[in-house]
Design brief:
The structure is a homopentamer. Chain A contains nine helices and no strands. The first copy, chain A, has about 300 residues and is mainly alpha-helical. In chain A, helix 2 runs antiparallel to helix 8 and helix 5 runs antiparallel to helix 6 (about 200-225). Mean pLDDT of chain A is about 80; it is low at about 1-20. The interface between C and D is large, with 66 and 74 residues. Chains A, B, C, D, E: It is found in: Cell membrane.
Chain lengths: ~300, ~300, ~300, ~300, ~300
């Protein structure tokens, strides 16, 4: 999670490289932090040992012959092959939808922050004080929302302190922080209305943006704190486990000691899908797969400062 | 369903644990309340007895030989394997969508409750009476909606009684409770408008939130009272039943008495999916899989009290 | 379709029973009206006779031997097995989406009827005449919409006659009925505005609800009168037919006379899916699978009468 | 595309027939215009000839024996069977979504036309001139939109000529016609506002409908002029072609001359799906599968004339 | 990317050709720029060499016999065949959804530009200066958005220079360009409001369009700068690679040197899907598959100029 200052026009550098055959090869042999093999290799080694043991027992110790019923246990694996694939796709789809949903919400945060800043810039006179207030508070909201979703994001100094002394408000860190920021912005606008410096129509004019801030917060909380129903994830793990554990028995007859890499590879494929799904299900963490939220927050900051 | 008072900033503790291999193992051998095996084990035992009986009859009593046509009944199971998988995925998807839809609706309830409180806090003077009225009624609506959806939720005292005597209204418990709360809030605002203490623009300002309350209620009722078309669930149950009951006949030739655990496992997989789907289809119950609604209602309460 | 008066608080009794193993069994052996077997049994008998005939011809008359190419016709069935499954899932999904879409629309009808009643109740003085007008017209709209979608719904008396004489308007039954109701409500509000008894802001206040009434009507008409493209349903029926008709040829070699129940069961599964899809594709009929619209209309009526 | 005058209440006759076994049979043996077999039969004949040739060469000329590797080419077909099915389903789904999206847009056109007419009828005094203006222009917009999407729709006379002389405007047929109609309606309302015959609130009151007209037009253009990415359709056609052309080689060993009808049937199934998808991808044509737009436009016309 | 001036009524020529059998053939043997074979042929040749080598080693050098366990490695390929198909479909679906989402956003850009122009044309007097200002700025926004998304689009002259001198503003090209255009339009309207030449209601009247401009920009940035989670694309590439590399080992026994074209074809199919998905995932490039954005921008320009 880098922390450099970013110019607004270049807030999002192209992350989509051009794809070429050479590129493919580099993809194949690069095992970066997000690579599932880094997390799964202890279990893969265990599976290899287990498969080798099963193969040894069946072939050398018990010396099961071709007619043994054990051979046909693999019938179960082809019967259930569809079901396990379908479940993994279901898992992948729902996890990806949350991730993309999270991205959409932060895209809305960008849009509404921009719109609020542009509208206020057009509406307010060039009076430094009022513009300055929102110049601080709009990015502060985004920043607070990020820390609300992920406590591990480093605090970047108290934005409130940048405000002139009479506008500073002490936030209550025991309470819901993003709510307090939205509340402050609403109060400021209502005060301007009461003092006759804004018409009611102008308050309504910026209402959709402030309303959206709260909406985005509630939706992000929904994604952050509601994992997939426990029954599914628990059932899927049990299913993968039994599927893999029984896999060597039937196929030793066909594959001999080749069973070892093959069971390991099948496990790698199935467990990777479950693992990636678990990771992207919560898109607001700071992992390599997660959304570049710190970058987005900084983009909001530089864009709001440009406008106001 | 816990009942402790919760600070608003921590209303939703992180429920997404970090996943590690150790974690996986704990998942595998923990059979918590939601585990389908707890519900299915009587039927699994029945299936085992039945499969054993079929195997005994075919192998010992009738002594069917390799050429018997019975052997090839399994052809049907691979022909229909796709269809049954597809149907279960369809079932899983629709049930999950309802569950997630329910979660989205309650996320909207959180958001609109917050927004209504923040707007009123900004709009109303620091007059205790009016603020106090909505401080009671907004969370009371959420609480009433929860009881409306799930009669088993314990009544937590009459929120109305916390109001000053002249504002108390006797609800008619024979009628639609959430409607009455929304009606009361609308009337209160209209009265303030008639007394000249609110402008019409200000009434419109909080209208989207009150409108959303009724919308959320109708949508929750839709999810709660409209199960999947009876034809589908009835057909799917019949299909799974016949599929499992005919499974041992063909495979005894390949699997001998191994047929017993294998048919049991296939049944466990297929019936689990149907069972989980049935459970999460109605996300407003109080099961372990269902949404943590009591917790959400308490979060609304503490957040509204912070703001107003 | 029952017709009893229903208290609003209980308008939608829980239709989701608790599921237990005993429950499953009752599901298996109950063949209610919606059961596809009741509709398909004549064709299932035909299929049985046909399969038996094919088996008889191949085994007794032509005495095809193991080497006959006819044996391998089943290759085609496994090649096309995916495609037929995918198509049935596509069919099931689109039909279910229409059904659920229809339910969502009626849920909106409930919500907007409630909201309109609550808003009018808060806005209008306790003058019986005006409240009474909308108390009659809001549920009358829902009732007219239902009859508009399904001519077979029994007419429940002319709601107009419940109005005081000077407010009664003769509807033109040759024209679009729901449009006329919405038109009457709009005109009544505009008249109140012209007479100075409503502000323009108040007319706008209830506009979203009236606008939604027309929207719901147009969307219901879309679902009601636009079946799936004829090419798909025609192609799917031809495909199922040829698939089933050619099924016995290849499998007689493996299955002998067992082919009869197996082809019948495969047909039952495939045709049931098509049949259920056809039924729920039009969710506004009066079948057992269709939406409980009469019940919803009565719920709207009792709720509106409670509020206004 | 029929052209008769239709009463508004019956604008959309029930097109969903009741389904009975007899009905199914009629479906099977009716080859109407939309039937894919009418379009595919030249290619089906070619495929038959080709398959027969391959079978003749392999069996009579080259006399390949059972051990030939050619036999196992069919391995490829089962490996890729999934992929081709998935791709066809993807194709079917996206095409259907466009078709249904198009239907939804026209349903919105109906709804907004109705709403605009009802609102104007309530707002405008019974002054023939102004009502008459919109009575002509609202259906004229729908009609112009249809011709904008499908140049082959016959022009039904210039609607402008029905207007009184001083209201007639010469449209510029080189420019975007639907835009001009919306522009005329906006200008007429603004003129009424400038002349003091409408309040600004009333102009806003009908704004959502006029705004929706332009939105519907842009969305229809999107569906009409953006086919599926060329890479997909090109790739899918090549894939089907190679899949079918290589099909006979491997299966001749199993099927002999039976290969001819079987390859033809597989081709019929795969190509039909691609063909239907191509047809419904553009739902605004005048084919049998396309949307009954002329009928919808006439429904709009009769409904608007009823109301205004 | 053509650059000719286009009449607005014909901005989007029909790109959906009529399909005929002849047409299909032309599709099959045309390898245009978007054809994946042009990009994959170096890797296809490598795969062919590799498969040939494996076949040579197994058959000629090692002379593995029929009983070798190597033969059954193909078991793995059928076990994982589902999973790889599902993943490719997931990839295809998500990429297509982004592409279509991008198209929908530009369709909204068209619609809002039109609507803004039509509304302004109706609202503003025929004063050349103000109309001219928006006649330049509305298409300039679309053009700037396009360059913001794709730096390679050629700059088409500074639109600002077409404005009269006193209206020209120097844009800051280091900052976010589209934001500056929206800001200018907002400021211009607010100035007109302050000068009393617009009512506040009229500013609100065009607010939805200006708000939408920023929304579209943020959503396009989301699609442009957020590729699919790296874990998925990395995992999928590794999976395809290992799947293809191990494919020849098992199947040489069945297919001999036929393995070469077959492995090459399977690779072509799987890699094409991944490649096309990568291409359409970013729909704002200038490739043949990408959206015709330059054409759409020119359509906006000519339509706005017609109206204002």
């Amino acid at each position: 999670m880098e922390n450099t200052t970013i110019k607004s026009g270049y807030a999002f550098p192209a992350q989509l490289p051009t794809y070429s055959p050479q590129h493919w090869f580099s993809f194949l042999f690069r095992f970066n932090q997000t690579d599932t093999i880094r997390k799964l290799y202890p279990m893969i080694i265990l599976i290899c040992v287990y498969s080798g043991l099963v193969a040894y027992l069946e072939m050398e110790v018990w010396q099961l012959n071709e007619k043994s019923y054990v051979r046909n246990i693999s019938v179960m694996h082809s019967l259930l092959g569809f079901v396990i694939s379908f479940l993994l796709v279901f898992r992948t789809n729902t996890a990806y939808e949350r991730w993309w949903d999270g991205r959409r919400l932060w895209s809305q945060q960008v849009q509404h922050s921009r719109n609020l800043a542009i509208k206020l810039a057009a509406m307010l006179p060039d009076d430094a004080k009022e513009r300055g207030y929102f110049r601080i508070l709009i990015p502060a909201y985004a920043s607070a929302l990020l820390r609300h979703l992920n406590k591990k994001v480093p605090d970047q100094g108290n934005e409130m302190e940048s405000l002139p002394g009479d506008l500073q408000v002490q936030l209550d860190y025991e309470k819901h922080i993003p709510n307090q920021y939205v509340g402050l912005m609403h109060q400021y606008l209502q005060n301007m209305f009461r003092e006759g410096r804004l018409q009611w129509g102008q308050v309504l004019f910026v209402n959709p943006e402030l309303q959206a801030f709260t909406e985005i917060c509630a939706s992000c909380e929904r994604i952050r704190y509601t994992p997939i129903p426990r029954s599914y994830s628990s059932f899927l793990k049990k299913f993968i486990f039994i599927y893999i554990m029984t896999l060597p028995f039937g196929y030793v007859f066909n594959l001999g000691y080749f069973i070892i890499p093959i069971v390991a590879f099948v496990f790698y494929v199935l467990a990777s899908l479950e693992l990636i799904a678990e990771e992207i299900e919560d898109p607001f963490g700071g992992d390599d797969n997660d959304l570049p939220l710190l970058r987005i927050v900084q983009g909001i900051k530089s864009q709001v400062e440009e406008v106001l």
